[in-house]
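Severity: low
Component: inverse-folding endpoint
Summary: output formatting inconsistent between runs
Steps to reproduce: submit the following structure tokens with default settings.
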């Protein structure tokens, strides 16, 4: 049977999600535990998408196939008992054989966090980006964000080393809100290019601190030139928060 699991992980000590030779990754840890449960048989785990080193997830989705007839609640417990503490399985459910964690995705939501405290807590240093007390003009950032909403060719917000040809995506929602001294950006869309969310975050941050105008964002999108967008924001402020599938809507 095919199982779908929603997982959460602290990306601090991982070299990303995907298996890489000689590196500690989320996929490697998951497949090691599943191999133990399956008496040495390799079980391939497929995720909704890969995350980079130090990027976190509170709602990543994976699927894998298993012949084991274990009750789903016990499957979740068995995984969590054996997984390292920086990965947790939040839920396990049986799905149709044609469900695919990556190709069945209809949308995703990400969150990016800046800590604008004058003195950042040492406990938050791996989970939000320190701004050394700088508080941006959020209204200017929101004004710039309007240009990002909708369907566009987002070449300017894509890392130059990607092999993806079609860079047209739709952003359904983009919000910036204060949570105490933390500024949170949440963004939802039907899909995201490599480093797209981090480049958007970096670009909007530059608007917020007056380094670029809100109007420059629309111009950057129209230019289809990565060089006209902002810097890529640091990885550790990013969270994959939710993966959507059509059956859930």
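Observed output (run 2 of 3):
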């Amino acid at each position: 049977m095919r199982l779908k699991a929603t997982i959460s992980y602290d990306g601090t000590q991982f070299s990303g999600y995907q298996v890489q030779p000689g590196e500690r990754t989320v996929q490697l840890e998951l497949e090691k535990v599943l191999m133990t449960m399956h008496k040495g048989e390799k079980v391939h785990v497929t995720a909704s998408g890969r995350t980079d080193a130090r990027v976190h997830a509170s709602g990543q989705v994976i699927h894998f196939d298993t012949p084991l007839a274990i009750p789903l609640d016990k499957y979740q417990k068995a995984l969590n008992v054996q997984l390292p503490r920086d990965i947790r399985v939040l839920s396990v459910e049986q799905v149709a054989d044609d469900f695919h964690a990556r190709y069945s995705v209809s949308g995703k939501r990400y969150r990016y966090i800046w800590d604008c405290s004058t003195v950042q807590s040492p406990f938050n240093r791996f989970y939000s980006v320190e701004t050394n007390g700088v508080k941006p003009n959020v209204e200017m950032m929101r004004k710039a964000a309007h240009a990002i909403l909708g369907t566009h060719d987002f070449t300017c917000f894509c890392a130059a080393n990607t092999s993806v040809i079609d860079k047209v995506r739709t952003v359904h929602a983009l919000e910036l809100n204060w949570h105490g001294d933390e500024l949170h950006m949440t963004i939802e869309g039907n899909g995201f290019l490599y480093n797209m969310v981090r480049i958007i975050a970096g670009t909007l941050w530059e608007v917020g601190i007056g380094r670029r105008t809100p109007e420059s964002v629309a111009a950057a999108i129209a230019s289809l030139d990565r060089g006209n967008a902002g810097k890529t924001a640091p990885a550790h402020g990013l969270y994959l928060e939710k993966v959507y599938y059509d059956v859930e809507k």
